[in-house]
Design goal:
The chain is α/β, with parallel strands linked by helices. Helix content is 52%, strand content 13%. Strands 3-2-1-4-5-6-7-8 form an eight-stranded mixed beta sheet, with helices on both faces. Helix 4 links the parallel strand 4 and strand 5. The model has no long low-confidence stretch (mean pLDDT 91).
Length: 287
C-alpha cells in the first residue's frame, strides 16, 4: 500500500476522530465530513481535508470509512452520494441484522462493503489488545487489510456481513456488565470514605486488559468522573445495540436494559445539572 493511500472518513465522534488522527500520522490522505463542521475544521489543522457535504467526501476517494452512531444514520448520510464503484467500510456499531440490511443497501447502489467493529478500550484504538472485527468478502478484507491494520490488527470472521457485529455485541454484553459494576464499585468506595488507590492495589492480579481500563477509569473518577455527553450517548446507543442483537437471537436482554437505564439517568441528570454527571455518581443519587 502506498503511504499516500487516500480515504474518506464520515462521522467524527470519538472513534471517528481517533481513526482520522491515526491515518494522518501514518501518511494517509484523509478527507473528512461531519454533520457539524467544527470537528472537521479541528482535524483540518492536523492535515485532514474537510468536505462540504457527505456526497463530496464520498466522491473524493474510492474507499470510505463510516463512523456513525448506528447503521440507520448511514442511509441519510449516503442518500445523495454516488456509491457506484466505491468501497464502504462501516465501522459503526449496530445489531447483526441491521448490519446485514445496511450491507444490502450499499451493495444495491453499486458499492462493495465490509462490516468493521472496533473492539477497543474507549477510543484507544492502538492499545495493545485492541482489535477490529471484520466480516464480508474475504478478498475485500485481504485487499484492505494493510490499510485497516494501520488502525489496529484485524480479526476476519467470515463472509456473513452480520457476523462481525454478532461477536462484537456479544463481547459488549460482557463489557457493559463489567463497566456498570465498576461504576458501582467506585461509588461504594467513594461513598464509604475508602481509598481508590487501595482498591486498585487489591485488584492487581486481574487480567491485564481489565486492569488497564480500571486504572484509566479510576484515575478519571478521581478527577470527577469518566465521560462527556458524547461518551454517555455512545454508551446508551451501544447498550441498545446489545439489546437488539440479543433479542434478534431470542436471548433475554433485561440486564442490558437495566444497564442502559443508568446511562439514560446520567444523561437526564447532566441535562438538569447543566454539567456532565458521570454514571458512577448516579449510584449515589436518591432521585
Amino acid at each position: 500500500m502506498s503511504a499516500k493511500k487516500s480515504v474518506s472518513v464520515l462521522g467524527l465522534g470519538p472513534m471517528g476522530q481517533a481513526t482520522v488522527k491515526i491515518l494522518l500520522a501514518a501518511g494517509v490522505d484523509v478527507t473528512v465530513w461531519n454533520r457539524t463542521p467544527g470537528k472537521a475544521e479541528a482535524l483540518a489543522e492536523l492535515g485532514a481535508k474537510p468536505a462540504a457535504t457527505a456526497a463530496a467526501a464520498v466522491a473524493a476517494n474510492d474507499t470510505v470509512l463510516l463512523s456513525l452512531i448506528h447503521y440507520d444514520a448511514m442511509y441519510g448520510v449516503l442518500e445523495h452520494a454516488d456509491l457506484a464503484g466505491k468501497t464502504v467500510v462501516n465501522l459503526s456499531s449496530d445489531s447483526p441484522a441491521n448490519s446485514s440490511k445496511g450491507a444490502g443497501w450499499v451493495l444495491d447502489r453499486g458499492a462493495r462493503f465490509l462490516t468493521g467493529a472496533y473492539m477497543t478500550q474507549s477510543d484507544d484504538i492502538q492499545h495493545p489488545v485492541s482489535r477490529m472485527y471484520v466480516s464480508g468478502p474475504a478478498a475485500l478484507h485481504k485487499e484492505l487489510q494493510e490499510l485497516l491494520e494501520l488502525l489496529c490488527p484485524t480479526e476476519y470472521l467470515g463472509e456473513d456481513y452480520g457476523i462481525a457485529q454478532l461477536y462484537y455485541q456479544a463481547n459488549l454484553a460482557m463489557f457493559h456488565a463489567f463497566l456498570i459494576s465498576l461504576e458501582q464499585a467506585v461509588a461504594m468506595i467513594e461513598r464509604s470514605g475508602g481509598d481508590l488507590d487501595r482498591f486498585m492495589a487489591l485488584r492487581e492480579n486481574e487480567p491485564q486488559s481489565l486492569k488497564d481500563f480500571s486504572h484509566f477509569f479510576v484515575e478519571a473518577a478521581k478527577q470527577g468522573g469518566w465521560g462527556d455527553l458524547a461518551n454517555l450517548k455512545m454508551m446508551h446507543a451501544g447498550a441498545q445495540h446489545v439489546i437488539d442483537a440479543s433479542e434478534e437471537a431470542g436471548v433475554d436482554a433485561e440486564i442490558t436494559k437495566t444497564i442502559q437505564q443508568y446511562y439514560q439517568r446520567a444523561l437526564d441528570a447532566s441535562e438538569q445539572a447543566g454539567r456532565v454527571v458521570p454514571v458512577h455518581q448516579i449510584f449515589s443519587r436518591n432521585d
